[in-house]
Design goal:
A hairpin with a 2-residue loop joins strand 6 and strand 7. It contains 8 helices and 14 strands. The strands form 3 sheets. It has a 9-stranded mixed sheet with strand order 8-6-7-3-2-9-10-5-11, sandwiched between helices. Strands 4-1-14 form a 3-stranded antiparallel sheet, covered by helices on one side. Helix 6 runs antiparallel to helix 7. The mean pLDDT is about 95. The protein is of the alpha+beta class and about 260 residues long. The protein has a single domain, classed as Valyl/Leucyl/Isoleucyl-tRNA synthetase, editing domain (Isoleucyl-tRNA Synthetase, domain 2). Bound molecules: ligand A2H. The site of ligand A2H has 20 residues, from strand 4, strand 11 and helix 7.
């Protein structure tokens, strides 16, 4: 990892409505009317049209970090330190934490997901496999193109009561985003079925599915939606990224 720095796109998912426990945790800690964003790090900005939810690790602790007077990010402390040194916060090099929030308390929060075809917003849901040591600890879910994401939303819908969520939060429609010659236009569901992946715990098969989906999507994929519809993923990917950054809905983050 130290040898090959990873260049992510950090996406700003604005909170529209807090889950009750999260609302309690941040009460009085930030100015009235301030914007709060959950900020997932992704390597596939061209798939953001397909976001159906946003994952947090239910057992992880997140911070509410001040970006500037009116804006706050929900990310891990580790990511906040990295961002501070990358000049993402108004006060370069230092971090200011307004509150701590446990992932499970954020579950159920409604956020706006930039570019998502679900314009009404998407819900924050739990994902047990989120690593605290990677990205921001927040993962946006694109079940059409990410086998991990598809396996997790399938599991959540199957056992909604166990996970303490509303079933319909995990069942937003999965729209086709990228056409591929080998796996059709719903790459992740296709591969999850083909490799007989039954749950997010099938890590070995998921690793293989992830590899296949990434290669096929990146080198053979054609975008089916958005401003760059009809273009090859390889060509469209940096264009979608730039568009998001220029719109103020994303920024570059590396580690
Ligand atoms: B990707 P790399 Cl459509 N824990 O975004 C677990 N996974 C994490 C994470 C964390 N803390 N932080 C980021 N990720 C995920 C989209 C996507 C992604 C698609 C297809 C594949 C894919 C939508 N989810 O990743 O180890 C994020 O999911 C497959 C590699 O740094 C991020 O991009 O290479 C990717 O893993 C970063 O993983």
């Amino acid at each position: 990892e130290a040898v090959n720095p990873q260049e992510y796109t950090a996406l700003k998912l604005k909170v529209l409505e807090w889950a009750p426990k999260a609302a309690e945790a941040i009460k009085g800690k930030i100015p009235e009317g301030a914007n709060v964003f959950l900020v997932p790090a992704t390597l596939r900005p061209e798939t953001m049209y397909g976001q159906t939810c946003c994952f947090v690790g239910p057992k992880l602790t997140y911070g509410l970090f001040k970006v500037d007077e009116n804006n706050y990010f929900v990310i891990t402390e580790r990511a906040a330190r990295n961002m501070a040194y990358q000049g993402i916060f108004a006060k370069e090099g230092s971090i200011e934490k307004a509150a701590d929030i446990v992932g499970s308390d954020i579950v159920g929060t409604l956020v706006n997901a930039p570019l998502s075809l679900h314009k009404e917003g998407v819900r924050v849901l739990p994902m047990d496999t989120v690593l605290p040591t990677k990205g921001t600890g927040v993962v946006t879910s694109v079940p059409s193109d990410s086998p991990d994401d598809f396996a997790t939303v399938t599991e959540l819908a199957k056992k909604a009561d166990y996970y303490g969520i509303q079933k319909e939060w995990a069942e937003l429609e999965i729209f086709p985003i990228i056409e591929t010659p080998s796996y059709g236009d719903l790459c992740a569901p296709f591969l999850v079925k083909k490799l007989k992946i039954a749950s997010p715990k099938d890590t070995k098969q998921l690793e293989e599915a992830k590899e296949l989906a990434y290669k096929e999507g990146f080198y053979q994929g054609i975008l089916k939606v958005g401003d760059f519809k009809g273009e090859k993923v390889e060509i469209a990917k940096p264009k979608v990224r730039s568009q998001l950054i220029e719109a103020g809905e994303a920024f570059a983050y590396s580690e």
